[in-house]
Amino acid sequence: MKVLVTYFSQSGNTEKIAKAICEEAAKTSYTDLKKLEEITPDMVAKYDCIFMGSPLHSGSLAAPVKECLSVLKSTSGQQMAGFITHMAPAYPEQDMDAFEEPMKTACREKGIEYRGCFDCQGFLAEAMHEPVQKKLGIDDETWAGMVKQMTGRPNQEDVDNAKAFVSRLFA
Hints:
Elements: E1 2-7, H1 13-25, E2 30-35, H2 41-44, E3 49-57, E4 60-61, H3 63-71, E5 79-86, H4 93-110, E6 113-121, H5 126-136, H6 140-150, H7 156-170
Helix pairs in contact: 1-7
Protein name: Flavodoxin family protein
InterPro entries: Flavodoxin/NO_synth, Flavoprotein-like_sf, Protoporphyrinogen_IX_DH
Domain Flavodoxin-like: 3-170
């Protein structure tokens, strides 16, 4: 099986998970790791399985990931799984469904089998702390607790969970 792990990352969180997914997939398959800007629709069409990663921006996949999904080619027999990183410790199940929907829709439209999505808390870039705190209307004490919760993420447990996600897909 030929596997592509591709991702969009600004702070390094999604990239860290992409590398873990690639490492695990490479144990059983030929695997390439590419930043989203390095791929083309023709290139992606040559893979049997695609792992596509995105941070959440304002509760949605990053715009470059959505754009990539919109230009994928129809490919029979291809599979896709997603992975996302975000600053929140957890989201309700219904939110996860909404985050995954652009991937599910692209897969339905292109005849690609959707295999699920791994999600992981990451650390919000320092430059975004004040604007996000203000947007969410969170007091300083609550925000300090959120920052403490996300500090050091993704951590080794997150990396191990990403690898376990891949192992389950390939089992």
